[in-house]
């Protein structure tokens, strides 16, 4: 059973193996092995390179000799029999046979298969020749071949009116204009023959027709072969016979001449206008007064102010919406297309790039008609490609298709603004006033026909191309349902001299933009600017008054005016910032989130106002920043050392050869340490600038928030690569950038204040604690008579001690076994705002002049010993004076401590003037940080933000803006540290070499 079942399989397998082996041997014998040196190349030949008796073999792609009695045909891809030879066999392959005709039948029939006698002679091709007006007859009615060909004269008499057709093989009825004019098939004088038509010379139609094509860009005007052949005939046929295609052809020629009208010359548009005016008795089409029966609709009329009425009077009876059940976000444009001869071709939608010369994917091309998507397409196209793709112009009448409330389909004519149109030699459509515009209807993309000068088959001398096409959609003011006015197509043509089409190219563009009246928004912005600007004036006046109080000067001088302007610059910068951020957020939220369309983004020209405001905000904020920057690096500061000597030591006296007791010197290292800590916190901020920039950049570039700034209706953070990417809106870029920057900045500040400072590190409070542990107070004057005081007097009496005693002091303080740190007994208040009297300031200045006369030990090598000793003496004098001032030693320069009123805190001004006594205001908010970066975080944050946005608005690049922002931060931080360090060394007599 097993053997029986396996036998056939084994046999089959054996047969398969033997068959495969045999096939392999056969192939080796039949086909030669491929040499390792064999190449796969052959000569490159073209059909025109073959000889007279050769044809181009489309299979072998080479030239092959024709057979006997043969020659190459007109196309060059096959052979044909020589004159006097008939075909015997021809199956479309290389093998066909020609046979010589008998002596009495030397002619060849039209199909080449038979020989025939030709009494009228032979043509160069060896076929029968007939006189003009005759047709050649080679076969009987039933197809029987005649032994002798005959030539039949066509009957031109009445009731027949026939002439030979173009091929000379059939009699056809002659053109109707010949019959109507002369009752024959000839057009004799005084009748006029033009364009193959015959017209009577009645005198009521212009006889002098200008057949020139205008090329205004190049300053040329020459006779066009197309116009010379067909302009007059089309115009007369349209005028006399109301021929529909002739009227369309005449309109096309007017459009080819840029719809230009000149009352002094009878060119295409003047002829069209003549016919239009003289057919006023005919009815209009669809009740449109500009559209006369039988004529194409080319113009809207030349009445002054007509264009604004057409463009902004009647809204389209349809609604557009981005979302919802009745979503309608597609502009359905259709066009009636005509060829140059006036034949209607078809209705076609504009999707697929009908009006877009630049090649692209269908998805990107169709994105131009997605409502709300600002579209921009630019490219450069070789002139040779244009000549190949557009040998003859196609004309389009564009309409917008819509559905009414009853679901009926309608179309609305789309007006055209041709920027090349001349009205009596004036480019009226380039005027800034729309009331002077002349709107038209029909457009074309490429005209390579009217530029042919002598021969319609030759290369055009000039070519006209629509290099700029812009579609404008205008939203109806105060609409809530997405109503729009009729769209406007703005088109500009360029004239190209075709000197070398293979090397020439042309730049073309296609754009779609959306507009709305921004008048109301501008009024609201102006109102906000006026109100907030007025408040800024009041705020600046209060700041100036507070500044005058703090410098102790009641006089209003030039310095006061300049100070007011600086304060006003800062407040006005905040006003511009608030307005621009509010405006940007308005457009971002309302445009992206709307369902029924009520707002559209401002066009680039309308954005200039906001961009100017942003620039003003940045410039003014930069002035405020520099003012604060300079103020911080020029403050007066002194470290009061409360440490006292602990006894006396024996000290050798130089030059006297003996010893004497001297006071134990107080260590300077505590002062150096506090000075270094102050130097370090000068540029401490509530945010991490690098983290801020990188996070903003991450959300913009990686997460995709920058896609919210695209000028389309989508609120998606990502875009698929095949889809069209709309251009960016500067307003939306600004809005997205500011929102991200502020949100991330505020989150950082909240984290820093709520968590980091409480649980990790608070450098400002740590500095105050350090001052107390070091037994050093800080006396700061940011103004002449105003500043800050940090009370650092140790409650333990001494700070210059060993580790054991220091730890014991900390333990006693933790267990409340010692007094509190405050300046006032039994209080913790260590920080104060101080308003000092003029007498106190004068005494301070007298000591300070000696202190700053030289820059202390840093210039010891270049200074005399006496000068250094004077500086040291001045330092001790200042330390002693300020210490005694704090201890109420000087009754004539005493002070008292009080709390600031709530209104004083709000307005930032002190109501009480320090006349006889200085005033110390309790300050629990550590406001001395206002002379540091730490206390000016809002100014720094907004300045960095505006810097980032200004760079981005200028270059449209978030990465570059982030890099430059970080660079300027580091530059200013370096300057602040360097100059602040020099000022610290100068004012405190701390050697700069110890500030690390």
From TrEMBL:
InterPro entries: Growth_fac_rcpt_cys_sf, Meckelin. GO terms for biological process: cilium assembly. It holds the Pfam family Meckelin. GO terms for cellular component: MKS complex. It comes from the Eukaryota. Keywords: Membrane, Signal, Transmembrane, Transmembrane helix. The chain crosses the membrane at residues 565-590, 690-711, 731-755, 940-967. Residues 1-37 form the signal peptide. PANTHER family: MECKELIN. This is Meckelin. It comes from Neovison vison (American mink).
